[in-house]
Amino acid sequence: MTDLVWYFLKLGSIGFGGPAALVGYMRRDLVDDRGLIDEATYNLSIALAQIMPGPLAAQTAMAIGYFQGGVIGASLVGLAFILPSFVMVLGLSIAYVAYGGMPWMQAVFYGIGAVIIAIIAVAAYRLARGTNKRDVLLWGVSGVTFAATVWTGSELAVVFILSGLVTVLIRAWPGRRRAVLLMAVSLTAAIAIAGLESALAGAGSASGQPVLLQVLLFFGKAGSFVFGSGLAIVPFLQHGVVHDFGWLSDHQFLDAVAVALITPGPVVITVAFIGYLVAGLPGATLAAIGIFLPVYVFTVVPAPWFARHRHNAQLRAFATGATSAASGAIGGAVVVLGRQAIFDWVTACIAVAGLLLLVRFRVPEAVLVLGAGVAGLVLSRS
Fold first, then answer.
1. Helices (H), the chain
2. Which of 10, 33, 50, 223 could lock 160 by a disulfide, CB 3.0 to 4.6 Å apart?
3. 53 within 8 A of 160, measured Cβ to Cβ
4. Is 248 among the domain residues?
5. Which of 8, 109, 83 has its CA nearest to residue 284?
6. Count of CB atoms within 10 A of residue 363's CB?
7. For residues 109, 87, 30 and 362, what is the CA-based torsion angle, rounded to 10 degrees?
8. Is residue 151 situated within a structural domain?
9. Residue 218 falls within a domain, yes or no?
10. What is the pLDDT along the chain (382 residues), one digit of tens a residue?
């Protein structure tokens, strides 16, 4: 357990690239390279994180911690993964307020954004190759999810559920009666999730409450009902923070997103930046608690059931299908995010160079991000 906690402390400190890349690192480091967990545990953790609400990377980390060390394992891994980036974002928040904004941040992101696309692309390929192997069905699941993500511009929890269901029905047929029941439960869950997402998108702000309580409740709601990767939470945050509550301007919110992308660890840690701008250190702390506490609860509560049935053929098939869907969604995220990050010949060259350095020379991601950030600063002044 100690090795696992130290690993997630390191990942939270130098793991760049957002949720897509982070879950890819987890598989590469924990399953393929170091053998700290087996593939079944990784797939089960991914499946839990995809089915339950909350940001993908943080929930996958907590699930791995639970399956290896129970509630204590989930708690230690969660804290180790989240705290380093929280401290970094808090430092940037203090500097941002003290110096009246950060013009250099967009310059840094000019270079980093392009190389992050290369990092995510490599992570998506490795996850798909490791999960799908030569299985035509699983590659088909990945392909459909890839297309759905590119088409909609977001990661759909409904698609993950249906991907798992299809894999169960084809690879681990449970019998006619149980199959009908499983289809009914899955479709009900998919409809319920779609309804929750729709209701959340139209939810307005509460008035007459103390600011700190508003911060806690708003981010608690975000952590409770937003499905998919941490990037999926950005549209909801933008609507609430800018339009409903009026806490930040559009420019400040873009700076908050940039902070999330230029710091390691889970992307949703940007809520600490937003919370600090709204109400200082108490606001940053409550925003982080609000976003991550529901994630923790939605991990440790269903995890015992997942653990008890981890050798069940249907659950294993569902987990494999959901993981294949995740690899497709991550690949789709490369296209969706690439449209925003790669927009001229300079960013295109940075992305291609990053891809070459990752694949051919296996340059560490942290070194690539640092180099891209420096390049962005230099090129923005030329």
1. 2-14, 18-26, 39-51, 56-98, 103-132, 136-152, 157-171, 176-201, 211-225, 234-238, 250-262, 270-300, 303-308, 313-341, 345-359, 365-381
2. 50
3. no
4. no
5. 83
6. 14
7. 30
8. yes
9. no
10. 899 999 999 999 988 877 778 988 999 999 988 899 999 899 899 888 877 877 888 999 999 999 999 999 999 999 999 999 999 999 989 988 887 666 777 777 778 878 878 887 887 788 788 878 889 999 999 999 899 888 887 666 678 788 889 999 999 998 989 899 989 988 887 787 666 656 555 544 455 568 898 899 888 887 876 655 555 566 567 778 887 788 988 778 767 877 876 788 887 888 999 999 999 999 999 999 999 999 999 999 999 988 888 778 888 888 788 878 878 887 887 887 788 778 888 889 999 999 999 888 888 877 888 888 888 888 866 6
DSSP 290-346: HHHHHHHHHHHTTHHHHHHTTT-HHHHHHHHHHHHHHHHHHHHHHHHHHHHH--SHH
Which residue range(s) make up the domain with 15? 2-201+296-381
Q: Distance between CA 202 and CA 163 in Å, rounded?
A: 27
CA-based nearest residue to 97, from 244, 212, 256: 256
Look at the alpha carbons of 242, 272, 201, 106 in this order and tell me if their dihedral is positive or negative. positive
Q: Which of 190, 124, 160, 89 is nearest to 336 (CA)?
A: 124
Given a contact cutoff of 8 angstroms between Cβ atoms, the answer to whether 3 and 77 are in contact is no
Q: For the full predicted model, state whether its pTM sits above 0.90.
A: no
- Residue 230 within any structural domain of the chain: no
> Residue 241: enclosing H or E segment and its boundaries?
none
User: Tokens for 128?
Assistant: 């798909």
- Report the length, in residues, of the chain: 382
| Contact yes or no for 35/29 (Cβ under 8 A) | no
Alpha-carbon distance of 74 to 290, in angstroms, equals 17
The first and second tokens of residue 164, run together, are 């798992």
Largest CA-CA distance found in the chain, in angstroms, rounded: 68
